[in-house]
């Protein structure tokens, strides 16, 4: 019989009790008692406490590949507050009668100094930010151990009955086993893979329940991507001053200033700790360069792709603003 089902009997007695029911305790055979009815009762709704454990590196990379076509975090932006709210709503569907303990948000930061975005996330209600380190290759270190520590501690102290783990890392298998040994049910959620699989099979096998968050769930969380505009871009440059894409050719100075403006905006949105990773140059990573170009073309309503001199001006304006913030850079001249 399945664990989510139980049997209940409407008759408390057994066959022996029926025989002893005759007056005087006679053993004279009488009519046989009716069969004891058995009723299958469906499991009650989840009414315990649950917590959501989010491996941000996995989530951002998987959503980036699925929606923006790249796992490079600098190439797109995700509305973290909207994503967290969506995860809480999704958990509410699974645990309609349950209580959320909190969302644990595991991310990496250089020297564990939070970025502007991470500080904003930490201020959200019912959210606890846990920071691992970020090495020179922008790889997270120590995040898995933080997830394991929290998951095992909450399970051992009976603080939760259900754990939603949004990750794909095989290193979490032992943590899942440990939580289950204390009676916690582990729900493994994953992002729909852009191709292949993005979760380790041993982790999938170990979880009690699995769930996939599809493109429709992920797409509204992405604010900016490196995808080029849908409109086709002319292959050749028009004559000086001619209209293209609904506007005239901008000047070198206009594009240079726009590069600085975009750098200023990114500093505010992504944080100084994130932007300093681009220094000292001399070139921008390809995905960041594309994001800068798309951002500028969207603001100008004009394609800079046939204009090498204007693209150079855009990069120089961008580097000049970063130089003001962090010190000498080696951008294009």
TrEMBL record:
Residue ranges constituting the NYN domain according to the UniProt record: 51-193
Tree of life domain: Bacteria
Annotated InterPro entries: NYN
Pfam family, one: NYN
Basic and acidic residues bias spans: 1-19
Region (Disordered): 1-37
Protein name: NYN domain-containing protein
């Amino acid at each position: 019989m399945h664990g989510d089902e139980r049997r209940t009997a409407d008759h408390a007695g057994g066959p022996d009790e029926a025989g002893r029911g005759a007056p005087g305790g006679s053993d004279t055979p009488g009519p046989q008692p009716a069969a004891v009815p058995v009723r299958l009762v469906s499991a009650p709704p989840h009414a315990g406490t649950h917590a959501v454990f989010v491996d941000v590196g996995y989530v951002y990379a998987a959503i980036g590949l699925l929606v923006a076509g790249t796992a490079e975090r600098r190439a797109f932006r995700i509305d973290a507050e909207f994503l967290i709210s969506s995860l809480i709503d999704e958990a509410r569907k699974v645990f309609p009668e349950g209580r959320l303990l909190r969302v644990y948000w595991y991310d990496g930061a250089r020297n564990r100094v939070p970025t502007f975005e991470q500080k904003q996330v930490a201020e959200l209600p019912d959210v606890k930010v846990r920071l691992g380190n970020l090495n020179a290759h922008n790889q997270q270190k120590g995040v898995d151990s933080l997830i394991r520590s929290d998951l095992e501690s909450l399970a051992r102290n009976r603080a939760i009955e259900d754990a939603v783990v949004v990750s794909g890392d095989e290193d979490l298998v032992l943590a899942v086993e440990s939580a289950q040994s204390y009676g916690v049910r582990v729900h493994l959620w994953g992002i729909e893979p852009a191709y292949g699989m993005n979760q380790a099979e041993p982790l999938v096998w170990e979880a009690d329940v699995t769930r996939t968050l599809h493109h429709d769930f992920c797409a509204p969380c992405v604010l900016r991507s490196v995808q080029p505009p849908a409109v086709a871009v002319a292959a050749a440059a028009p004559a000086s001053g001619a209209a293209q894409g609904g506007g005239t050719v901008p000047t070198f100075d206009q594009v240079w200033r726009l590069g600085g403006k975009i750098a200023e905006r990114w500093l505010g949105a992504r944080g100084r700790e994130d932007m300093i990773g681009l220094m000292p140059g001399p070139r921008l990573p390809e995905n960041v360069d594309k994001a800068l170009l798309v951002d500028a073309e969207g603001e100008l309503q004009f394609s800079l792709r046939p204009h090498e001199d204007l693209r150079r001006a855009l990069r120089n304006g961008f580097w000049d603003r970063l130089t003001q913030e962090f010190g000498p850079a080696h951008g294009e001249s």
